Amino acid sequence: MEAVQIGTGPLSRSDVVAVARYGARVELSEEAGAAIDNARAIIDDLAGAAEPVYGISTGFGALATRHIPADQRAHLQRSLIRSHAAGNGPRVEDEVVRALMVLRLSTMATGHCGVRRTTAQAYAALLNSPLVPVIGEYGSLGCSGDLAPLAHCALAVMGEGEVVDAGVVRPAAEALADHGLSPVEYAEKEGLALINGTDGMLGMLVLALADLEQLLDHADLAAAMSVEGLLGTDRVFAADLMALRPHPGQATSAANLRRFLTGSPILASHRHGDGVVQDAYSLRCAPQVHGSVRDTVAYAISVAERELASAIDNPSVLADGRVESHGNFHGAPLAHVLDFLAIGVADVACMSERRTDRFLDVSRNRGLPPFLAADPGVDSGHMIAQYTQASICAELKRLAVPASVDTIPSSALQEDHVSLGWHAARKLRRSLDGLMRVLAIEILTAARALDLRAPLQPAPATGAALAVLRREVRGPGPDRHLAPEIEAAVRLVHSGHLLTAANLEEVR
Hints:
The protein is mainly alpha-helical. It has 20 helices and nine strands.
């Protein structure tokens, strides 16, 4: 994997994912180094001035009225990081920590923060090592940015706190030494520059978008398998019908359904004279629901890319030499869209659960055995798999309640309105895990139904996905331990192997 260049311009979403999830190395460009040096020169000049400047020679937040003498400013930076590294709770995932670190480094590289080049290089070196700072899940209010999570990273860079090394939590000082890294003693403005950003929220949004784009394709594949298994129709997905309501996401999902169902002998077997006038909404309206979330994703991408092009800090160093305080660190733009996505995720999952439930009810499954059981009464089939879906959906509905409509004032009412964007991002990560599991259960159930429709065969694309599943999970038969089969389906959705098989077959 090529190293990701950190320059003065924005990182791409794929760059962030490469560094955060796949361990790509980073390189600070010479252009970025020059921009960092220019901004630092401005800070150095202001540090010697008699007039107090926020973030350089004053306290922070509600304590900004305190003028800090020059001989205490290095101590001020250490105190800031130590006091703000107050996170608690379960350890945040490594990919999230790496995402927020590379995003903070990218902001430093813009030349609007005033850090020294050595500090930026120390962040790059830590990212290029096996070490990951330990961050607790609780602590950020999303304003001023993700203070506590970012402070834990800055703490590790200065040789304090803890890091994860090959899965083992170790004191940062000894781990840095073992890997040939030197701790940094922060200078004026640097402590504030390292923590006043929306990097945690943004990192989780970027990772979520990468996951959600694939999960929505899986939702379309699951729906296609259910349409076949429930003897539905593909006529409602026609392009001319979709054009009557020209939402782009709806058109994309409908096109996916048409692709996946092309050439289906099952659909052809009942295309005429089956007496069914309309399919249930969970089948017929899949493009409208899935597509609405696709459009939400498109909006979220626009927000993420604007944020990737931003230099979030306070105060900021401007090209004309001014150092100005402002409110760009507020997480509202990210918090709102993170909550928006969680609402869509819950809706897609609930529609998936409804399709699964139809397979299990003899009054609605069009000739399949109750609960798809081999010997109903002796066997329960997929009865409790749907319970699992329902329990996840209940959780997703709770997670869909917006975090961003809440606010808890802090810092002696100086920070009297906060975004809670970190909370929105954490909720979304849990929601995406739930959606993946719900879709896996639908695919597992639809696959069993497709096998029970034999000798009729599914479409080439859905049949290819079914064949991949059958390498891991046996077909219909007497009750077996179901949990491992569900987990196998979850792994196949997570890996993308089902979708790859369906897409490759469709191309043929």
